[in-house]
Description:
The protein is an all-alpha fold. Helix content is about 80%, strand content about 0%.
Amino acid sequence: MAFFVMMGVSIISPVLPAYALGFGVSLGLVGLLISAFAVARVLLDIPAGMFASLVGMKRFMLLGLIIIAISSIAAGLAVNYEMLLTARIMEGVGSALYTTTSITAVSRLAPEGSRGVHLSFYISMFLVGTSFGPAVGGFVADHFGLGAPFLVYGLCAAVSTLMVVYWIEDVRPEPGEAKIITLRQLGSLFVRLDLLAINLATIGIFVTRQGILNTMVPLFSKYNLNMGEGTLGAILTVGAVCNLVTMVLAGRLTDIYGRKPFLFGSIVLLALLTLLIPMVTDALGLTLILMAIGLTIGLSGPIAAWIADVCVPADLGGAMGLFRTMGDLGFVIAPIALASIAGEAGSPIGTTPFLVAAVVMVLVGLPLLRIKDPVAEKRKASAQRL
């Protein structure tokens, strides 16, 4: 089901800016539309993590998928920008309920010693869907119109709903564990420096995914390279496949060597690669850069595993909600800010938005150097005993 959900999300990535521009709006409103999906997630990620055990994780996942299906169909049939914006917000509501709950469930069920592997496998299913989505979306848009990929997104959510109904058992709280995270517990999570550093780094990853790959790259390809949605979709798919390749490998390596070197190294490399995008002059150059970005994002590994490493089970739901919220803040802010910096619709995209994104990535990654990495510390302690 993770495959179908993320394929649906990525199906619309090559067409969303062009779809919004079709309603005669500015580049800033294009960024707002892309961010609208995350606005609701920012508001609901933490409540979803807090209440999932109380209501039932399976029920929360089902509710989220049903909302995604209905709102995606509405987006595909939108008659104006306002209707499309509303549908995107509702897609974010459904995504918050489904994604936060599903990641919390996998983190709780995975054995501690192989948490990175399990989360990598789960996230890899997201990435497999992401790999196929842009090419499918570009093909569908070229042949059936810019609204058609949203209808396919709704179909993907409907298929995932059936899979949850028939294949997924509910995840029960552990003995003695409260069914709901208290506000005091949640407040303590906000002030923990280790969680803050990991969450800031998550913002850096989302700046790349949403600000660069899903906003600036489509605009750059349209205005600087005169590239069609089908071609862009194929290129984004190649980058997503590269992401999948290194994500699976990184999951195993982070379980052995620790989370920090992979996540921090990935953020620094992403900043450097982002600076190269405005130098691209053709489709081949863009393909190579996006392949490198895909490989580098994958090297960051399953960031959620680090959250689970430093949290007790009773805090995990709230911590995962906070983790998703911080990532979604990057999802909200980056597309709006970078698209606004980019200038007027119809004009070539300059270097400024890419430079700003690169600087932000480095700054939010630096706090990682000051926090503990439990996996690496256990490995070091074991080596010293030998």
